[in-house]
Fold this protein.
Amino acid sequence: MQRKPIHSSVAVLACLSVVAVIGWRAGAESAGSKIVAAPTAVALVNVERALNELEELKALNKSLEVRATARQDKLDTLKKEQESLQAELAELPSNNKERQREIRARMFELNETIKARYNAYQTLIDIEKGEIIAPLYAKLLTAVQEVSVKEGYELVLFDDRSLKIPNGVQSVVNDAIQQKSVLFASDRIDITNQVVLQMNNKFQAGAD
């Protein structure tokens, strides 16, 4: 007669265990449903195309071309002097050794000067190009943020869809593959045109 309560107690405990398991699963499912993230609004910007279509870049490039032309004119002046000396040397009598030495010395000096100035001018051009691109890129980032806030984009990626994977050495192919971050994207999320318009409007308005 004492066994019935024992069996009854076990049965109750078993039922409670089943209820507890069901309750835990329901709670887990409920908690899981709460942490599902909402879709993120993503956009792309083709940075190279954006920079090349900026009115400010075109204006800055014109100033750069003016300086480059002035430097080239200086090189051309030295080259003309070099050519003139070469012509004079060809016409000199063979017995005029003194003048020949003077011309050759001057031609050597001109040749070294031309090479040194050419290298210096190339370095200056590279520096000046960097001084143009760096602040423009900073402005582009600001424009990307402004357009994104306005249009409701939460993440903007560098559009590298145009980056082609070359055929050739495996290491080169691997490097190109690893550099790509966008494997596919619809053109609908490309906001490059909006960013360019934003920056060009600011430039035309005289805003920084």
Observations:
- The longest helix spans residues 97-151.
- The beta strands are 42-45, 155-158.
- The chain has two domains: 1-36, 37-204.
